[in-house]
Amino acid sequence: MKPWETIDTTTVDGTTLKLTRHDREFLILADAVPLMSSRTHGSEDALAMAGCRHARLLPAPSVLVGGLGMGFTLRAALDLLPSAATVVVAELVPAVVAWNRGVLGPLAGHPLDDPRVRVVERDVADVLRAERGRFDAALLDIDNGPSALTSHRNTDLYTDRGIAWTRAALRPGGMLAVWSARPDRQFARRLRDGGFDVALEPVRGRLRGGPKHVIFVAQVPASI
User: Fold this and answer.
1) How many CB atoms lie within 10 A of CB 80?
2) What is the pLDDT of residues 128-171, one digit of tens each?
3) What is the DSSP letter of 109?
4) Taking the CA atoms of the chain, what radius of gyration do you get in angstroms?
5) What span, in angstroms and rounded, lies between the C-alpha atoms of 149 and 6?
């Protein structure tokens, strides 16, 4: 059996991220805990499908993807959106962007090469605070969902304050989709209290089977 090969490592807020490969499978670990695998990206695809339900019907939507991962959510969003769409990818870790421009690129068909895509190497919270009324959809796959794993800064996104930033960044009718490793009733309540219509959608890591995850789907009411 082939051993796992370490391709690269980086550090974010004291957490070590390691990109590894075994045969055709890639795995990113956070302090030796598996964070994402190229074999189980069904829930990342589902995140894009849930979050782009409104944006995909618009002639020139603006979409924010928070957290690049291995590029699967971005690829799924691009496959749904029209040619005049603009997709901003906010990724805090420069190494993750480099991995996707390099060895991980073929996994999702090199989505960073799409002319609709603009990469911003910033905390997605900073982008949300700066871009009021900019987006028709925000797809957030940050850390482990409301239970942060790699960076304590990520917890701000899931507080009342972070929810307010996100709502302000979305246009009327805009949708927020949040990937989570598990259900979180308190986060769902905070979304509702923050002015969103909210649904929780269970998804699986693979098309058939795999680990169970949850997508929080929240929509800003359309103006009357």
Assistant:
1) 18
2) 999 999 999 999 998 667 765 444 566 788 999 999 999 999 99
3) T
4) 16
5) 21
Q: Which amino acid is at 109?
A: G
Token match 């796992």: residue? 4
Q: What are phi and psi of 191, to 5 degrees?
A: -60, -45
Please write the tens of the pLDDT for every residue from 63-88.
Answer: 999 999 999 999 999 999 999 999 99
**Helix ranges, the chain (H):** 42-51, 72-80, 94-101, 124-130, 160-169, 185-193
**Rounded CA separation 100/118 (Å):** 14
Q: Are 173 and 61 in contact (CB under 8 A)?
A: no
Strand partners, 180: 214
Domains of the chain: 40-219 (3.40.50.150)
Helices 72-80 and 42-51 meet at what angle, rounded to 10?
A: 40
